[in-house]
Amino acid sequence: MTGSLARLVFPSLRWRRESFAHERSKIDAALAAGVGGFIVFGAARESVATLTRELVEQAGRPLLVGADLERGPAQQVQGLTELPPPAALGWIDDLDATRTCGMITATEARSVGINWAFAPVCDLDLESQNPIVQTRAFGADPVRVGEQAAVWIRGAQEHGVLACAKHYPGHGRTTQDSHATLPRVHAALTAAERAASFSPDILGYLRDTLNFGGLVVTDALIMAGARAAQPVPAATVGAVAAGCDALLYPENFTSVVAALDRAVGAEISSARADEALAHYDAALAAWGVLPDQGEPDLLGHAAFADALADRAAHLVRGDAPNIRVPLTVSIVDDDVGGPYTVGPRDVFHRTLREAGVSLVQRATGNLQRIVLLYAEPRSWKGRADLGARSRAALRRLVPGAQLVVLLGHPRLAAQIPGTAPILLCWHGQALMQRAAARRVVNWLR
After folding, report:
1. Facing residues of 412 across strands?
2. Residue 202 has pLDDT above 50, yes or no
3. Spatial contact of 204 and 211, defined as CB atoms under 8 Å apart
4. Who's near 389: CB < 8 A, 6+ residues apart?
5. What gap in Å lies between CA 216 and CA 241, rounded to an integer?
6. d(CA 409, CA 395)
7. CA gyration radius, the chain
8. What is d(CA 60, CA 21) in angstroms, rounded to the nearest whole number?
9. Element spanning 225, H or E
């Protein structure tokens, strides 16, 4: 007999002011309601480990605890390992290395109690005006992307963490961001004007034609595309009725649980409810409790990541420059201005200084200039190209520069004026800043 569908619901937990304490009332209410687990965002290693241990102890049962880990476990857990973005891995095209990235992600995530990785992105990087996929995808060729995604998943799941292939049936051809609206792809599997999460045809194809037997998961329900701009409780009922098994990040989970349970036997058939619960129970049985794998080799993983970052960094315009000291470094940051804090922007400078390279703040006389261009895909931008402010700054700074370091998608190189060499480093994360600095040290004369 069908029980409560609360097990299909996964609220979010965010770390604020060095603590999860502000989430205590949410945790108590969610566990009392019987949710299936949680999603964790941005915290220190020890805090996550303590949180996940206490969640399971308080629940008195295993839970699925997920996190967005597309660029390795450090994307959400400070003190763990950063890995290059998928586009860099796709360019390197080393399946063994990509599988190792999945393994590192899993072993480190598992060590802090995370057993579900919302990764890898399996979209194709096909549309130059796509504002949100870009470097999150392994590339544009479906065969190569499929191979990369498959080995990443295998590496993760062989080491204790459930992976999640994002974003079926495909976000790569869109020119809109699903965080803000419902994107449309005209090469769709059905003519019905509904999001994939609410389409029995699209989800039926996944089950019946592609023979997928695991969890079918909504994207975060705070996103306009995920709820198709309708109230979240109604959206979750429609998603489960269409074939979804897990509902991520509803802000008011109590109203969602109530709506789901009211809908069983009406909008959601009892058979569909039982099927969804069975899929959750199967995932929990496979991934909820596994033997302790011991402490991960963080030093070894960091060395692997740095070596991989060095392989990923390469020139996309011009020849290797002859760089002299002292240097000045100018930053053009296309990622500021939105609601989210950007990552550290001083790692490149610190790495150079640690290598004994003299940096000064103002370019005068015979000083040589390096320009860092930060341009990640971010949900608030609504665009794939550089913003007007960034383009104006580049027009001012690039003439006479010895090098531009592009911490973004290689397509953006065409928007950088002048003829200065461009070193592609894919993303503004600390890992790739360090790789850029090491390359500059190698070019010093």
Report:
1. none
2. yes
3. no
4. none
5. 12
6. 19
7. 23
8. 20
9. helix 224-227
3-state SS assignment for residue 413 = helix
Average pLDDT of the chain is: 93
Helices 253-263 and 24-33: angle between axes, nearest 10 degrees: 10
The single-letter code of the amino acid at 61 is R
The 10s digit of each residue's pLDDT in 309-357 is 999 999 999 999 999 999 999 999 999 998 888 999 999 999 999 999 9
Tokens standing for residue 48:
């996550």
Q: Report helix, strand or coil for 43.
A: strand
In sequence order, what are the residues at sequence separation of 6 or more whose Cβ sits closer than 8 angstroms to the Cβ of residue 14?
Answer: 20, 23, 41, 42
* Type of residue at 373: L
Please answer whether residues 175 and 244 qualify as being in contact, where contact means their C-beta atoms are separated by less than 8 angstroms: no
The answer to pTM > 0.70 is yes
At residue 179, what is the residue type?
H
Would you say 28 and 3 are in contact if contact means Cβ atoms under 8 Å apart?
Answer: no
In Å, how far from its chain's centre is CA 414? 25
376 vs 22, 346, 437, CA distance in Å? 30, 16, 19
How many residues appear in the chain? 445
Angle, helices 95-111 vs 142-157, to 10°: value is: 40
- Over range 56-73, report the average pLDDT: 98
Percent of the chain with pLDDT over 90: 81
Cβ(14)–Cβ(41) below 8 Å = yes
Which domains are assigned to the chain?
5-287 (3.20.20.300), 313-443 (3.40.50.10870)
AA letter at 284: L
Helix axes 298-312 and 430-443, enclosed angle (nearest 10): 60
Going by their DSSP bridges, the two strands 314-317 and 422-424 should be labelled as: antiparallel
Asked if residue 227 has pLDDT above 60, the reply is no
